[in-house]
Write a structure and sequence with these properties.
It is a single chain. The chain starts with 6 loop residues before the first helix and ends with a helix. It is elongated, with a radius of gyration of 13 Å. It is an all-alpha fold. The longest helix has 23 residues, at 31-53. The chain has one domain. It contains three helices and no strands. Helix 1 packs parallel to helix 3 (62-84). Keywords: Membrane, Transmembrane, Transmembrane helix. This is GlsB/YeaQ/YmgE family stress response membrane protein. The chain crosses the membrane at residues 6-26, 33-53, 65-82. It comes from Albidovulum salinarum.
Amino acid sequence: MEYLMSVDSIVSLISGAIVGGLASMFARGFGPVGNIAAGLVGGLAGGMVFDTLDFMNVGDLADPAIAGFAGSALTMAVVTAIRRAP
């Protein structure tokens, strides 16, 4: 619960929203708003997982940005695969 009230969570959310926005331009998903929402969820989840596992220690703002990017990219890949499935 501590992670949700930190600057790291905000950075993860921002990077997740950016990935979701970029994904809406390049891949079919759930539209721009849906892709950004999926990116936000993925960014927050990725940030929480990386924080819990204490996965990396690159820098103060780089850690949550990378974690948010990785989580949202994984989420967007899953969303795109679900959208393409018949």
